[in-house]
């Protein structure tokens, strides 16, 4: 509905809009029946992001089952999946021995990935990926 406020006319949709682009214009009719239409305004609603995932890249899992997330590589490569095309930031948080550090991910021809810049020592590492898009939406993978 359109309402008149102190600063002019205000449009508020009667229901929440789904993600997507919407084109709006205003038509004004005066008491004599004359009409005038505004130029159009395109509004993009972007309120969601996919939940990203991180996993050892193909060939990096050297454990007994090949899917147990055990590797003997000291600088393993990880693939990041379910990354929306409009992200403006992708980071990987690595927790080890009570310390968490955050690193930028890399986008290549084959998608998003992460590899530590220095060799890791033996131990358990917990990784998560965080994405942010241009609308300010943030989403984080489960660890």
UniProtKB/TrEMBL annotation:
Stored InterPro entries: Big_13, Ig-like_fold
Pfam families xrefs: Big_13 (PF19077)
Matching Gene3D superfamilies: Immunoglobulins (2.60.40.10)
Occurrences of domain Bacterial Ig-like (ranges): 2-46, 48-142
Listed name of the protein: Bacterial Ig-like domain-containing protein
Natural source organism: Salmonella enterica subsp. diarizonae serovar Rough:r:z
């Amino acid at each position: 509905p359109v309402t008149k406020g102190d600063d002019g006319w205000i449009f508020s949709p009667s229901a929440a809009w789904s993600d997507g682009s919407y084109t709006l214009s205003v038509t004004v009719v005066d008491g004599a029946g004359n009409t005038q239409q505004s130029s159009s305004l395109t509004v993009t609603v972007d309120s969601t992001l996919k939940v990203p995932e991180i996993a050892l890249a193909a060939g990096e899992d050297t454990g007994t089952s090949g899917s147990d997330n055990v590797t003997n590589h000291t600088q393993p490569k990880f693939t990041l999946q379910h990354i929306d095309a409009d992200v403006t930031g992708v980071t990987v948080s690595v927790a080890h021995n009570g310390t968490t550090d955050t690193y930028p991910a890399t986008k290549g021809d084959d998608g998003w990935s992460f590899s530590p810049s220095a060799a890791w020592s033996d131990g358990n590492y917990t990784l998560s990926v965080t994405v942010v898009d241009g609308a300010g939406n943030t989403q984080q993978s489960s660890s």
